[in-house]
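Entry type: protein chain
Record version: 2
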Amino acid sequence: MLRIILLLLFCLNSIFATIILPVDIKKKNNFIIESFYDETNNLTIDTIKNQKFEQSPSQFSFGHKRANLWFKLQIHNQSLENKFILYFTEPYYNEVVLYKKINDKYIEDKNGLIVKLENRSILNHKPTFELHIKENEIKTYYIKANSKLTSSNEFEIYTKKHFNTIYGQYQDFLYMFYFGTIFFITLINLFLYIRLKEKIYLYYSAYTFFYLLWVSAYSGLILHTIVDGYFHEFIMVTSLFIMFLILFSAEFLNIKTYLPKMYKFLNFLALIFAALSILIVYSFQPWFEVMNNLASLAFLLLFSTAIYIYRKENDKNVKYYLFAMTIYMITISLMSAMVNGWIQSNDINRYSFLFGSFFEIIFFALILTNRFYIAQNEKLKIQKELILFKTNNEIFLENQIKERTDDINSLVEEKELLLKELYHRVKNNFHMVIGLLSIESNIFENKDFKNSFSKIITRIKAMSLINEYLYESDTLSKIDCADYIEKIIDEITIAYEKENILINKNIDVLNIDIDSAVSLGMIVNEILTNSIKHFDKKNICIIDLKIKKENNQIILTIKDNGEGFIEDSKQKGLGLKLIKQFSNKLAKSNYKFLQDKGTKFILSFTST
């Protein structure tokens, strides 16, 4: 009787472990397989057949197993199809080898990370094998697999036709939708950082970007890039997304204000994760495991800090953070517990972190966008207030300026009137002096005395012309050089009207300051009177007078047709002394006398 019961149990066990492919099959999942863990890592296909396998679900998790896992699949095809796809749902297995028996000999079909995509029997980023099973045929397959990450996985069986349709690739399409959304959020936050220059947006865009890369690795899609062949080195992005999550959390929770020492510690912790990312590239183990353990402590520290700040400050941003991170941490904890083999592997435990992270990223993105919106509204409000203030201030300033301008204009007008009155009085005084000197000169009949008085009168007239000119002019700071010099020449011509005099004038139109005009007028008066005084009375006194402006220099040239003189012999004369003194008053002045069929005087100076 006992033998019969054992035989029945054996038969039931064998039937239960056999995978039945029904007539209407498109996809087969959630079935029973047999597994064996080879701790020695030495078993081969010839020796594994003698081992005792244990039954396991097709969706399994054995935790972190570093040695080889063996699976036995006994498949009974009851359908009309004969081509099937055996599909491994996880891409991160380092080696997956399918052993199929052909002509009483097991043939290896290698797959996994050790085999590049272009060298796989089926081009897919996840370990995939083609099975040929005839109708009503039963075949047994062995699979050897090992992973540096975790031993969680799922077997699925598709008909080849169904696998090549969109339904066989639905997971990849879901991942692509996920990637597109997260990438769009990354770009938005990068744009907000460029606009606002706030670190929180930069940290969040970096966090979402590296998280996106991590999920790309987790899904296996990253193997379609140049990363193929460097999968484990690429896993360093895990450490980077945790680093930026810490930095983002520190800014979002405003930890620098509430807990300055904790803020410094979190920044130091972020640097540790940055260093771990480099160490993982150098040596995947043990640094990846160190990073995982430290990540758990970091999440716990962030969560505890957020709770402390919320209880102390009741900040609404902290409340939002706790809400989003609670959902995220629950889902990521389910996945973590599954990959460690603590809980059963199923679709909820396996994929819930995607929904949790998707919600968390969208939630924070909305908060940060709203933060940008509030900042923009505040900016607009401030701008409106500034415009209003500026408008009111401008009106006030315009009124003040108008009042001050009116006062200044009034003062300027008064000043101009006073100056004109002053110039008028000075001019009258000069004329009075000239009149007195003329009366006095008429008393003497001596020609030398009369010539002396005549010289004095012409000198005084040259000075009085400035006051007369300013009195009649609209401007009180500049003198029209040509007009002023011509008046001096006219006065001299009148004074020596009985002499044979011809003065040729060539004067540029230019304005000079009052002081320069006085000195120039006195010099012109002295040179002209000297030329007239010393010319041969039998001839006509011809004088050429030129005033030209070259660059910043004003050049006066006076040439006569007289007999000339030796300058050294006349140094004690008053006229030459006056020429020297008034020349010294001109800016950067230089003068000289030349003998050129008469006397030629050249003076150059700079007028301000």
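Comment: The domain at 475-606 is CATH 3.30.565.10 (Heat Shock Protein 90).
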